[in-house]
Specification:
alpha/beta; Rossmann fold; 10-stranded mixed sheet; about 35% helix
């Protein structure tokens, strides 16, 4: 089954982290009145001898079907594939509103959302990708977005503002000042332009010195969602392509949205 147009797409692996991601995706689908579509890749368990029953793809899909009967989303659906999970999710995301992945999994389905697969999806998915981590401080209403003055961070800001508008949240635009980086005034202009059509969403702006990964991870402690762009300027340009991204995704203490 193809992904319903505008659906919340979830990559599911059967672990407790996948269940946390399922609950988050279901809650968002309810809030946005969008369908929830779940994709399971059985490729990595097809030829594994002696796999415990609870990790078999058949068990995972049966359990998922039971979980979806309790889902609150206005519409739910599921697809099981025997293709590489990263490629399958990217294809399925073409008609989705956004794609959701758990932070990590265990067992033979672990590569569904970790390592090369998550990197592949965050780099190649045509829309936003949200990697779910349990929030340190649940339900603050705050959405933190990393801003460096680039067009990619401007796109991240637009996503953050729209998400805040749809969920009743407020936005903290965070500029991490880098040596030789973009001036505060230029970042302020990007933020001012982006918030012209904020629709009443409350926005605060902070300029702080330090390293992008440390400051963004710290800010996530008091956030419902941390939003970052795929590329930036200067030292931040590797935000989704190298160590900064991996650090943010590993150490953030709330869900992280990656926006293209």
């Amino acid at each position: 089954m193809s992904t319903p147009s505008g659906a919340i797409l979830l990559g599911y692996g059967g672990s407790e982290h996948s269940k946390i991601a399922l609950r988050w995706a279901d809650d968002l689908a309810v809030t946005l009145s969008r369908p929830l579509h779940v994709l399971v890749s059985a490729l990595h368990v097809a030829d594994v001898p002696g796999v415990p029953k609870e990790h078999l793809a058949g068990h995972v899909t049966e359990e998922l079907e039971q979980l979806l009967t309790s889902a609150k989303a206005p519409e739910t659906s599921m697809t099981t594939v025997l293709n590489p999970p990263g490629e399958s999710l990217v294809r399925a995301a073409e008609s989705a509103h956004l794609t959701v992945l758990g932070a990590r999994t265990q067992g033979p389905l672990r590569s569904m959302v970790t390592g090369s697969v998550s990197q592949y999806v965050t780099r190649h998915a045509p829309g936003p990708v949200v990697v779910i981590r349990e929030p340190h401080t649940p339900r603050t209403g705050r959405i933190v977005v990393g801003i460096d003055g680039s067009e990619h961070s401007a796109k991240a800001l637009r996503f953050a503002l729209e998400h805040a508008k749809e969920t009743g949240g407020h936005v903290r635009a965070l500029h991490v000042q880098q040596r030789g980086g973009v001036a505060d005034e230029q970042v302020d202009r990007v933020i001012a332009h982006g918030t012209e059509s904020a629709g009443g969403v409350r926005v605060t702006t902070d300029h702080v010195p330090g390293s992008a990964d440390d400051e963004l991870a710290a800010a996530s402690r008091e956030a419902d969602l941390l939003v970052i762009g795929t590329r930036g300027r200067g030292p931040v340009q590797a935000l989704l392509l190298g160590s900064v991204t991996q650090s943010v995704l590993q150490h953030a203490q709330c869900p992280v949205a990656v926006v293209h």
